[in-house]
Structure formats: C-alpha cells, structure tokens
Automatic annotation (TrEMBL):
This protein's record includes keyword Ligase: yes
Region (Disordered): 21-45
Bias type Low complexity, positions: 29-40
Annotated EC: 6.3.4.15
PANTHER family, sorted: BIOTIN PROTEIN LIGASE, BIOTIN--PROTEIN LIGASE
Name of this chain's protein: biotin--[biotin carboxyl-carrier protein] ligase
Organism for this UniProt entry: Collinsella aerofaciens
Amino acid sequence: MDAQLTIVDVTGSTNDDLLEAGKQGAPHGTGLAARTQTAGRGRRGHKWDSTAGNLLLSIVLRPRVDPAKYSGLAAVSGLAVLEALEKQGLANEIGLKWPNDLVARGRKLGGILVEAARDNEGNPFAVCGIGVNVNYVPAEVPDGGLPAIGLSDLNENVPAVDMLLDEVYHTVVNAVDAWADLLNAMEENAGPLAPVHGEYVAHLNWIGKHVITRSPAGDELARGIFKTVDTFGRACIEKEDGLRSFHFEEASLRPLGE
C-alpha cells in the first residue's frame, strides 16, 4: 500500500478533510489523524468529543465493489479496530454494538462513521472515521447514548496513541481489501456483510438479550430478543408476533431495562 497516514495537531474534522481530499482524487488508503478536532462528529450528526489524548483517525477507502455494498464498511472496520487492539493485548473486554460502536463494560469506547461520496470524476469512495477513547473519557452523554469509557480504564499499560494509530490504520485498510476480494468472489446478490458475518455476530453485544428498538427521534419501534444481524446489516428482533428487521439508519438498540 503506497498511501500514507498523516498526523496533524488540530483540525476541524478529519472526515470532512478527507471527504474533500477524496473528491480531489486522494487514493485508497489515504489516512489523516488529528491530536484534537474542533468539529468532530459521530453518527446522526452527534458531536464527537475530540479532546487530545484519544485516537482520531479517518481513511479514504476505494474498495473495488458495488458502491451499494459500502454499507458493510462499518462492520468490517469495527472488526479491524478490534483486531488491532487485540494485537496490542487490549481487546479482552471489548465488543461491538450494532451498528457502529465499540463498547466495554456496558460503556462506549469508540465509534465508526462511514460516509460515502463521489469524486470530481464521478468515481465512488468512502471515508471511514474512527474515534477511540484512549486517555480521555468524555463526560457528556448524547441523547439515548451510553456513558463513555477509555482504554486506560481497561488496561494499566496502554501504548502511545501514535502506535495505536499506526496499528489501527494498517489493519483497517488490509481488512477492507480482504473483504472486497471475498465479496467479489461471492454471488452478486450476497449481502455486504457476508464475508465477515459470522465473526461480526460473534463479537456483537446483546445477542440473545431482550432489547428495545428506538427511532432516531427516540420513539419506541419494537421490543424483543436480539437474534442476529443479517448479511445486509439489519438487526433482527424476535417479537411475540414474529421477526422484525431494522436497517441501521432507522433504529438503534438498547438492552431492556437500561
């Protein structure tokens, strides 16, 4: 891989910077990390607290797959971040929360934001933004969100953020490349998560638990048992009257009673 990772002291949003770079033709694997962001954001426009001491990274991705299958990138990237942390001996208590969070001890450790776009020549690309709490834990909890936790709360010896950045960056790009190769070897109608489905579900929190499903506005959509996530990334909830599936854009999950 010839693209490189650049680290800056401060920027508004690494995702915004790379969306613009991607439109100008920045190649697959172009990475940008910041010590601090002044306008960091998460899913559904939530503010992402980007104080110094944490991992703040975005990567331009141009996988050679149908752009309609870019919806698999968040799961692939989440698994890759877990793998990178595991290489550093840091992943023992960490799991994934559908659709795009890293969690530990019932708290939010990190998040992934994938944004798709087209460059000035009309070619599709995506920017994957990754935020992981390392040494600083935000106190503010978004509406309906989980309280935060940091890697330093889970482990006595956490490597320097720059070392983690390098590991996460390379692991994510390699995982996306492997996913694209596997997906292209499958039937055309294969779901975007098909190449990583078993591994993804195995790392998901709350499988088999009673959950409540809420809309972006906070309205209750359903209650039931979280059975699985299908290969198209939909959460499958077993209700008394049957199975219902929810796309990640229309719902979020919380354990019942929390």
